Records
---
Amino acid sequence: MLVVVDTNVIVGACMGVGASARVVELCITGQLTPAVGSALLLEYEDVLSRGSLFEACRLTAAERDELLDIFLAHAKWVKTYFTWRPNLKDEADNHVVELAVACGATRIVTWNTRDFASAELRFPLLRLATPAQLLQELQT
């Protein structure tokens, strides 16, 4: 299954949140294929470099970087040549939907489903799922 993993899921995995960690594990083991584009990569790198965000984290900065490198080694790189502008509540999240549409992903995995659900532009084959919802879906 081709998925777009939102930054908050990567952060959750670093912080030891079970469902987030399991989704990242499934990507690393090839059971899910994460799609990544330049905007999402820059966001991953920016957020993971914020030391204050990870003060209580079980991983050091070097370990977070290594985890991201391993995750990216299993990702499908996608170039996005258009901007659909789904007009999400948070403008900074539009690139995640654009990436999903560009690569034909079936899921955006995020803890932030409320903001993504408010999009004005809808794509019927693209669904939102929290990490916990995706894991439950994969078990059935």
---
Amino acid sequence: MKRLVVKIGSSTLTTGEGRIDHAYLDSFAKQVETVRDMGWQVVIVSSGAIACGLERLGMSGKRPDDMPTLQAAASVGQGLFVSAWGDAFAAHGMITSLVLLTRRDTADRTAYLHARDTLERLLDLGVVPIVNENDTVSIEQIRFGDNDTLSALVACLIGADLAVILSDIDGLYDANPAVDPNAKLIKRVDHIGQDIISAAGDAGSAMGSGGMVTKVKAARALGVAGIPLVICAGRREGAIVDAAAGREVGTLFAAEGMLHEITPRKLWIALGDSSRGTITIDEGAKQALLRKGSSLLVVGVADVSGDFEDGDIVDIIDKSGYLFARGRVSASRDETELALGRTREELSRNRLLAEMAEKPLVHRDDLVIFE
């Protein structure tokens, strides 16, 4: 059977007053039932526990911005959230389960693989897993920050054939439709470059934490893994069914196949851990990574930022600031900074830095390129 991951955000799942829209949830369940009859296994990534909790606590309206209140609301709302999903799907003969994740669960590769095995088994049993970030215990340093990233991670975990992000907007536009009446919907994207990321702009909603930029970045990571993504309006009738049937809906980020050899380890590097820093490299080093399949040597590094240690994940950008790769470093920020601007010969003559003359700062096996 084919596998589909559907992400639905709080702004789509709730009413204008911040309450769970049970009528919409019922129509959503009907769509999932139809898609399953079409031969798809479905995993849902959904937020909503905080919204449920805020409603029960009489705090509907403007979303609080302090972490303790949000976590308290998630604690109150989690049971309501589970019941709402369970009741809606049970009415259509489907069993749901709840899978709560934090970034800590995926930063450790063993835990990452256990999460994959759990989802695989739930699908084998005919269950529809509902995946959410564990908002009750997540803190800023370990939270995903938005379920767009989480949905991309889940799609990669289970080897999905398609991912769908249901949004409060029709898809990706070439300009912000909220301020530009001439903005046009981009129906298909074959390559995500800086122009597409720039077009995503900054957009969000009162109940959610993500925006179009996070969705496009999720699409980029999925594209590396060969998984197409559709971003469309969640309230559009039959949106999930149309996407699963291959009909035109929203914006399709096409993925004709894996761009590079992507192992589970590389997918974990791309999505499973948060970046601890940024490495800026020169054009020669960038071309060596893109065209020659090389590892990244420290002599190609122009600048570093952040506070990373040996073994941490870092973002890799070019001198224009464009993020095109991620990788696991073999040296700390302090060591890397000491080596900046030195030739290989100069590094070899320095007893403290000699090892860095030949050893890759990021080995090809620990490198994920997004284009």
